[in-house]
Amino acid sequence: MRTMMIWSLCLIISLSNRILVIASSSRHLCRPYQKDALLEFKNEFHYNVMAGKTESWRNNTDCCSWKGISCDPKTGNVVELDLQDSFLNGPLRSNSSLFRLQHLHTLDLGLNNLTGILPASISNLKYLRNLTLYSCNLFGKIPSSLGNLSYLTDLDLSVNDFNGELPGSVGYLNRLTELRLVSANLSGKFPLVLLNLSELTWIDLRSNKFEGMLPSNMSSLSKLIYFEISGNSFSGSVPLSLFMIPTLVDLDLGRNDFTGPLEIGDISSPSKLRVLYLGENNFNGPVPRSLSKLVSLVSLDLSFWNTRRGKVDFTIFLHLKSLRD
């Protein structure tokens, strides 16, 4: 009798679990107005080839199950739209239905042909944390409204054909941790507003048209890990404050117009710097002995250094036990 009761109880529990699974799988998370916005957004573009992720978008299915879409399981709001490399062809319109997806946290439209300007209405997505528009054939000025995205932590506008300077409003993005602007055709001086962004860990400004001197107070970026500005026209001396950033691991100043002897200064605590690229600049004078303080270095580039026919003291490198390149 007791055995029968146990088996009956197990059967009831098993059936209950199956009913719960069926009920949860049949419940559509997607909010109808957000599904409509997504389908309208899809129709704003023409597709010369396969439609990529949007091929799975059908009106009679839950949009939270579509490729490239993630929803909040509690609210059903679309919080992530990842359409990277999805064959989108056409401009991102200022009145695009995309901007009705007010709850988006992540937007990735990288590697699409969005030929046109980045509309100021991008700021309608006020809860965005991650924005990736890598290699989208965008041109024109970066809109100042970008500074209204106060929750933004990660911004990638690399490999586009913008013109002018980075807007000063970027200085309002005080949660920003990673900034990627590689080959974005930007010009002007080093954007001083970046020094206000104390949470930045990653700055990549490679292959643009920036010029002039770096600011002397670079150490205000106290959490910086990665700083790459190669392939620009920066000039003058390298500020000592760069080497004072305790978290810095990767520093690439190559292919610029930096001049003069390099000074690293008095580094009191062990440096975390692993990569230091200084090649293809206009440095001159002896290779500084202070390089020996950078004991964590794995890779070092001093190419095209003008030693003025002086001898290189190779004992400097004997202290760099981790050096491989």
Characterization of this structure:
This protein is α/β, with parallel strands linked by helices and 325 residues long. It contains 2 helices and 19 strands. The longest helix has 25 residues, at 2-26. The strands form 3 sheets. It has an 11-stranded mixed beta sheet, with no helix packed on it. It has a 5-stranded parallel beta sheet with strand order 10-12-14-16-18, with no helix packed on it. The termini are far apart. It is elongated, with a radius of gyration of 26 Å. β1 (69-71) and β2 form a beta hairpin. Helices cover 11% and strands 18% of the residues. Mean pLDDT is 90; it is low at 9-26. InterPro entries: LRR_dom_sf, LRR_N_plant-typ, LRR_R13L4/SHOC2-like, RLP23-like. Pfam families: LRR_14 (PF23598), LRRNT_2 (PF08263). Residues 96-320 form the Disease resistance R13L4/SHOC-2-like LRR domain. Residues 33-72 form the Leucine-rich repeat-containing N-terminal plant-type domain. Residues 1-23 form the signal peptide.
